[in-house]
Amino acid sequence: MSYQQPPLLFAENALEPFISAKTIGFHYGKHHVAYITNYNNLIAGTPLDNLTIEEVIALTAADPQKIGIFNNGAQAWNHSFYWNSLTPDGGGEPSGDLEAKITQDFGSFDKFKEELKSAAATQFGSGWAWLVLDGGTLKVVKTGNAQTPATSGQKPILTIDVWEHAYYLDYQNRRPDYVATVIDNLLNWEFAAGNFQAAQ
Ligand code: MN3
User: Fold this and answer.
1) Taking the complete model, does pTM exceed 0.85, yes or no?
2) How much distance in Å is there from the Cα of 117 to the middle of ligand 1?
């Protein structure tokens, strides 16, 4: 079935000064829209049109014949997840069960932040850095291009887009500054807590 872009839960300028309205305007309004348009055009009139986007991503992930559908579908999904991973009142630390589990699995919240920063900074080229639940353990992973951890059986909790279009207008080549700023000021721990609860 065709995929509809979820509404942004904040105004385009609500993440300033950390991410500009201009970046959100292009990223949400152009890049994400283009992935969704391409995806919907590619599945229209095919048997995949009867499936959810999650089902299509899972079915096409290992099929080189359907790489275009996978790339656009996974990018459509990853971006929707990314917008929910950000909030104007974000950053800080999680609470409750998720805080306890991060401390258990990473040693401390600061160690988790260092792992996430490192994964985001060292993803070579375009991609994503993620907090995932993998077989009962929280892990930080990175994926290239459109790849998404859900196809590896991991359950996404939070993500940071590290494609250049996510930060270049505001940070140019300084990806580590963008990542540190997102972690400290914008990560949506309420969204993460809901994903963590649902994933168990
Ligand atoms: Mn992007």
Assistant:
1) yes
2) 17
